[in-house]
Amino acid sequence: AERALIQSEKLAAVGRLASSISHEINNPLEAVTNLLYLIATDEVLPPSLKPYVHAAQDELSRVSQIATQTLRFHRQSNKPTAVTPAQLVDAVLNLFAGRLSNSGIHVEASYSTATKIVCFENDIRQVLNNLIANAIDAMRTGGRLLARAHDAHHGGLEGVRILVADTGTGMSVETQRRLFEPFYTTKDLNGTGLGLWISKEIVDRHGGDLRVRSTQNGKMHGTVFSLFLPKEPPAVAASNSAPLKSPAVVK
Ligand code: ADP
């Protein structure tokens, strides 16, 4: 138990260090991302240069992912906002547009709900970011990425369910059992094994649910991640319904 404690203290220290570094590089990264986007979409860009710009965008998006992935626990979260599933998913899909088309992945997004959910938007985007990055990794030879959303109930809560499905490699029973463990990865040096662990943490904090279904058998290989988010995280709901203090009572 003591070893586990020391280990968790070490992790906490590493986390704080990583998140302060990520925080510092996030703004310049975003600036470069926007500038590259302007270059990529400029009509006068010579076609011969396009592949270079796209490659630069892809690499940059990988750096951003690493930066945002480490920017987690120890950062003070911003205020919760009300957004639709479509807003959340489309924002992340746009970020990956270059990588998706370069990888020969066809995206089908359709949403049958416009319910607004209250959430920490950056955190939920981070979750979707991890799911989509994993889907791309699983479809090295192309495939289809499906994003869906509908109204749903879970654990007595009203909310929305977002599905992210891929026609990739699928995963073994062991991987399905272990994928939410920290540092569990099948990607050797290309993976951190932190993405889904962090994602689960974020979803739990929202009072939501994240689960996976995957198959490697025959023609129908692929993976479906199903993410439930309540209309309002329980913690936010509780603080909203707390009785307002009368200014006269506050000393
Ligand atoms: P990482 O991507 O860095 O390995 P994650 O925690 O995001 O870490 O994922 C853990 C493991 O789960 C991956 O290494 C991979 O084996 C498996 N996995 C996650 N998503 C998918 C997917 N869509 N298709 C196939 N395998 C997946």
Describe the structure.
By secondary structure, the protein is of the alpha+beta class. 48% of the residues lie in helices and 20% in strands. It is built from seven helices and seven strands; from the N terminus they run ααβαββαββααββα. It has helices at residues 2-40, 50-70, 85-102, 121-138, 173-178, 195-205, 234-241, and strands spanning 81-83, 105-111, 117-119, 143-154, 157-166, 209-215, 222-230. The strands form two sheets. Strands 2-4-5-7-6 form a five-stranded mixed sheet, with helices on one face. It has a two-stranded antiparallel ribbon with strand order 1-3. The longest helix has 39 residues, at 2-40. The protein is globular and about 55 Å long. The structure holds adenosine-5'-diphosphate. Residues 20-233 form the Histidine kinase domain. It comes from Terriglobus roseus (strain DSM 18391 / NRRL B-41598 / KBS 63).
